[in-house]
Amino acid sequence: MTTPTAELNEDFSEPGATAVPWADAERVLAAAEMFFLSTVRADGRPHVTPLPAIWDRGRLHICTGDREQKAKNLARRPECVLSTGSSRLHGGLDVVVEGVALRVTGPERLRALAALWKARLDWDFEVGEGAFRDPAGRTGLVYGIRPAKVLAFGKGPYTQTRYRFG
């Protein structure tokens, strides 16, 4: 992944503020354990749910049960948004990632991601046929979301930075 171009939106930033460097936004993505995933239901209604995600190789990776609403939504419409950050008003950095969720099914990549889930979140997954299996034998579909657009919202000073890729 190439380093994106950072652009400060002065309309939504404090006077004199500067764009948040990509390294700062990427640090938030790598350190965060929980994100909010936004998808769209078949009837157009939004669906938002908290879930862990792993930042690796320029993508956010998520796992969801094959029968869960988010899996149904992503199968029909893979465009989604993941967000993470601080619940504080006057500090921290919130990051929003817009992209397309693509299934990860290769056994080598799934094994590498399962190792990351264990190391970072202490979750045990085995690799089955194109998916994770948890200790109870349930199927976990794995998706990688490559950022199409990322926004970072600083809260001390208040800033809005957009990152352009490619």
UniProtKB/TrEMBL annotation:
Gene3D superfamilies: Electron Transport, Fmn-binding Protein, Chain A. Pfam families: PNPOx_N. The keyword Oxidoreductase applies. Residues 26-123 form the Pyridoxamine 5'-phosphate oxidase N-terminal domain. The keyword Oxidoreductase applies. GO terms for cellular component: cytosol. Keywords: Oxidoreductase. GO terms for molecular function: coenzyme F420 binding; oxidoreductase activity, acting on the CH-CH group of donors. PANTHER family: HEME OXYGENASE HI_0854-RELATED, PYRIDOXAMINE 5'-PHOSPHATE OXIDASE-RELATED FMN-BINDING. This is Pyridoxamine 5'-phosphate oxidase N-terminal domain-containing protein.
